[in-house]
Amino acid sequence: MAGRKIVATNRRARHDYEILDRFEAGIQLTGSEVKSLRAGQVQIKDGYAAIRGGEVWLENVHIAPYGFARDGGHDPERPRKLLMRRREIDRLFGKMKEQGLTLIPLSIYFTHGLAKVELGLAKGKRTRDKRRSIVERQQRREMDRARRRR
After folding, report:
1. How far is 48 from 10, CA to CA, in rounded Å?
2. DSSP string covering 88-139, please?
3. Containing domain of residue 69, as a range?
4. Is the dihedral of CA 101, 105, 106, 111 positive or negative?
5. Model confidence at 13: pLDDT above 80
6. Tally of domains within the chain
7. What integer is the mean pLDDT of 46-50?
8. Residue 89: which CATH number?
9. Beta-carbon-side half-sphere exposure of residue 7 (alpha carbons within 13 Å)
10. What are phi and psi of 78, to 5 degrees?
């Protein structure tokens, strides 16, 4: 998309989870965290989002300390507050409680200078589902190759 600079993506999420819905949220960051994000020093593979006290928090996302920060910078593993509208939070909370779903970060990016995270409302895949999706992907590739040969 125009005006969007992707910093990190969670490629593993699409393998381990079935993504049912996507949401965009702002991230409340300190100055040194923004600098580290702009440098691409973030790891979201093991991250997830939790709803506590009516607020959404991004957990287990590692943003490396900025080397030139004063007083050592920030705690790399600290929970970060996500900025979403109350109606969205309530809807997410209901779906998560009712259906046993989880929120995982799919990507972190900058839009018009603001740090955003794309969250996926996801359901965990079982091993057989993962195998089935691998087989389906291979079959699609083979069909595409056969079409190209003709």
Report:
1. 11
2. HHHHHHHHHHHH--EEEEEEEEEETTEEEEEEEEEEEPPHHHHHHHHHHHHH
3. 4-149
4. positive
5. yes
6. 1
7. 91
8. 2.40.280.10
9. 25
10. -65, 150
